[in-house]
Amino acid sequence: MPDQNRSIGQLSKLSGVKITTIRYYESIGLLPEPGRTSGGQRVYDEASSNRLLFIRQCRDLGFPIEAIRELIDLQLTPNADCLCPSSGNLRLQAA
Question: Which segments constitute the HTH merR-type domain (predicted)?
Fold first, then answer.
């Protein structure tokens, strides 16, 4: 699939995440600052779309924001030490 740029509305529909939530994830640094059109509208690339889908899946599984941030950091720096301070507090429950 070729790299495709999406507006925030398109990204919201694709991911099922509200526009306000997407902006919130940007403001706290879970999503990188998107590119902008000449008119100032946000433009999201495929990497941002994939990251948002990952965040949504983590939230659906009950992961707190800080744990998601740690998972993203591990993905960005795969050779880093994977001892996460809050990971010891995570418990996954079987449905």
Answer: 7-74
